[in-house]
Amino acid sequence: MRSAEVHRHTRETQVTVRVHLDGSGRYHIATGLGFYDHMLAQLAVHGLFDIDIEAQGDLHIDPHHTWEDVALALGQAFDRALGARQGIVRMGHAFAPLDEALARAVVDLSGRPYGHFHAQWHTPYLGREAIPVTLVGHFVRSFATQARAAVHVDVLRGADDHHQVEAAFKALGRALDMATRLDPRRGGQIPSSKGTL
C-alpha cells in the first residue's frame, strides 16, 4: 500500500495528513480555509489520490502558518508513500485549462527538492479569507521541499485569479498522477541511471 500518515504539531498549527497514492480521488479536507480546501480537493480529484487533511492553526493571526504547514505535511506524506520510489514513472507533466486560464505543471520525483511558481496576478488576495496570492508559490516550494521533488508550475494566462490558481492545482494533480504511477516495464527498478533517488 503506497500510503502514509503525517502529523505536524507546532505552537502555530496542528496538522494531520493521510495520503493514498493509488486512490480514486476521494478526499476529506478541513484546513479552516475554504479556498485552500477547494484547491487541495482539485489535487486529489484530478490526481486520483485519496487525501485526508485536518488542520487547526492560528488563523486569528493570518493564513500563512496553516497554509505552509499543510503544504509541508502533504509533501512529506507523498515522500513517505513513495518509499524508495522503485518502479515509478518519476516524471510527469500536464496542462489544465479553466475557462480563460491555462496552467502547466512539470514534476520530477528526483529526490532533489526544487519549487518554481509563476503567475501574473490581478488582485493581492484570494477567497473570502483574504489569502495573499504569494502563498500559492509558497505552497509549491514547501510541497516540493518535503516531497523531495522538482516542481515547476506556471500559469500561462488568465484574467481571473481564482481560475488561475484552480488551473494550477488541477495541472499539478495530473502531473503528480503521471509521475507517481508504477511503470510495469521498470520491474520495480529505481528510475535513475545512478540506481538511487
SSE layout:
Blueprint: E1 3-9, E2 13-20, E3 27-30, H1 34-47, E4 50-57, H2 64-82, E5 91-98, E6 101-108, E7 114-118, E8 125-126, E9 131-132, H3 134-147, E10 150-157, H4 161-180
Parallel strand pairs: 3-4, 7-10
Antiparallel strand pairs: 1-2, 2-4, 5-6, 6-10, 8-9
Helix pairs in contact: 1-4, 2-3
Q: Quick summary of this structure?
A:
The chain is built from four helices and ten strands. With 197 residues, the chain is of the alpha+beta class.
Which terms summarize this structure?
197 residues; alpha+beta; Ribosomal Protein S5, domain 2; 4-stranded mixed sheet; 34% helix; 30% strand
What can you see in these coordinates?
- The chain is of the alpha+beta class.
- The chain has a single domain, classed as Ribosomal Protein S5, domain 2 (2-Layer Sandwich).
- It contains 4 helices and 10 strands; from the N terminus they run βββαβαβββββαβα.
- It has a 4-stranded mixed β-sheet, covered by helices on one side.
- A hairpin with a 2-residue loop joins strand 5 and strand 6.
- Helix 1 packs parallel to helix 4 and helix 2 packs parallel to helix 3.
- The protein starts with a strand and ends in a 17-residue tail after the last helix.
